[in-house]
Amino acid sequence: MLLHACVVTKHTLNLSVKILQEHLTPLKEVNYDIAKNHQVRKKYTIQLGENELVLKELDLLQEDANVYKLIGPVLVKQDLAEANANVRKRIEYISAELKRLDSSLQDMEEKQNSKKDAVLKLQQKIQSLQAGKGKA
Asked: Coil, strand or helix: which one is 73?
């Protein structure tokens, strides 16, 4: 009977380890997606700061000031009102993207937490099986 219990415990332990590994893969994927989200968010945050700075500079200019936009290797003259409008649109777009990224990040963190909980429970089960196996 003791031999049968050891075989069942070993089989259960191996099965639990396999299930744990299957749960770790999606957790790693979510962690990767979160890191990617942080990188993109950082890029947009920098762009937002740059565009806000440009907007402040444009606000300091007089109506008759010359404004140039760099397009490729060429500086092209641009109307001050048009430049102002373009920068404001970019700021709106970047702000909307940051909100979208925040929402996405929140969803991913919830997934991450549930996957972490599942992995933790499996680890605890494996530890209890190992502890039981050690006693037998």
From this structure: coil
Distance CA 9, CA 2 (A): 10
CA 36 – CA 27 distance, rounded (Å): 14
Type of residue numbered 46:
I
Q: Residue 60: which CATH number?
A: 1.10.287.370
Coil, strand or helix at 117: helix
pLDDT exceeds cutoff 50 at 55: yes
Domain holding 115, by residue range, is 2-135
Angle at 124 between CA 121 and CA 129, to 5 degrees: 125
Give the pLDDT mean for 4-8.
45
Decide if pLDDT at 9 tops 70. no
Is residue 40 within 8 Å of residue 102, measured between CB atoms? Answer: no
113: helix, strand or coil:
helix
How many domains is the chain built from?
1
